[in-house]
């Protein structure tokens, strides 16, 4: 299954990169957002 999928997508490496980038953004985006919010809240509490 995966082999057939990779063979079918081989002529379009750009599409693979775009989909991979979207997956990375969707998985890392919320983590980075939560970490940034936590850091901002921590600095706000530190300043107050």
Quick check: average pLDDT? 79
From the spread of the alpha carbons, the general shape counts as rod-shaped
- Taking pLDDT < 50 over at least 5 consecutive residues as the criterion, the unreliable ranges are none
Structural class: mainly alpha
Assess the beta-strand content as a share of residues.
Answer: under 5%
**Overall number of strands:** 0
- How far the N terminus sits from the C terminus, by CA atoms, comes to 56 Å
H-E string? HH
Radius of gyration: 19 Å
> How many individual helices?
2
The main pleated sheet reads as: none
> Percent range for helical residues?
over 70%
Annotation keywords:
single chain, 48 residues, mainly alpha
Structure description:
This protein is mainly alpha-helical. It is 90% helix and 0% strand. It contains two helices and no strands. It has helices at residues 2-9, 13-47. The longest helix is centred in the middle third of the chain and has 35 residues, at 13-47. It starts with a helix and ends with a helix.
Question: How would you summarize what this structure contains?
Answer:
By secondary structure, the protein is mainly α.
Chain-wise SSE layout:
Blueprint: H1 2-9, H2 13-47
